[in-house]
Amino acid sequence: MYVTMIKGIIFALILCKVSISDIRTRTVENYLSVMIVITAFIGTQPIDLPYMIAGALIVPLPLFMAALIKPGRMGGADIKVMSACSFLLGIHKGMTAMIFGLALSVICTLAIRLIKRKNIKDSLPLAAYLSAGCILAYLIL
Fold first, then answer.
1. Which residue ranges make up each domain of the chain?
2. First vs last C-alpha separation in the chain
């Protein structure tokens, strides 16, 4: 129980740094994704590794496909962070995290753009929303 709590705290702190970095500079340093992958090994059994690898490969596929379809619209950092988070969370929690994060981004973006009357084509820090979804998925499921 304590291991899961410590792992969750470390995970949340890293994701806070990811969010701050993405909001301020629209970039996320590679070492943050590596730190998430390292955190994934806390309290993990070797038998869980195939499930973790599958999560890292399968969950970020929709983001990768979106980046291929519309080049320049989505950064690689979003895909890397989601892949690292899915490695930690696994397939089920990873997909849930991505759904939570994307839903949160749509709701918040629409609300912000209605209030500030901004153009719908302005960029948004997606990694921050995905981070929130990952924290929610880690805590809820």
1. 2-140
2. 14
Q: What would the pLDDT profile of 12-27 be if each residue is shown by its tens digit? A: 999 999 999 999 998 8
Contact 79, 63 (CB under 8 A): yes
CA-CA distance, 107 to 43, in Å (whole number)? 35
Closest CA to 14 of 3, 89, 5, 31: 31
pLDDT tens for residues 91-103?
999 999 999 999 9
Put simply, whether the predicted model's pTM sits higher than 0.70 gets the answer yes
- Produce one character per residue of 111-137: b if its CB has 16 or more CB atoms within 10 Å, e if not: eeeeeeeeeeeeebbbbbbbbbbbbbb
Asked whether the beta carbons of 4 and 141 are under 8 A apart, the reply is: no
SS (H, E, C) 63-128: HHHHHHHCCCCCCHHHHHHHHHHHHHHCHHHHHHHHHHHHHHHHHHHHHHHHHHCCCCCCCCCHHH
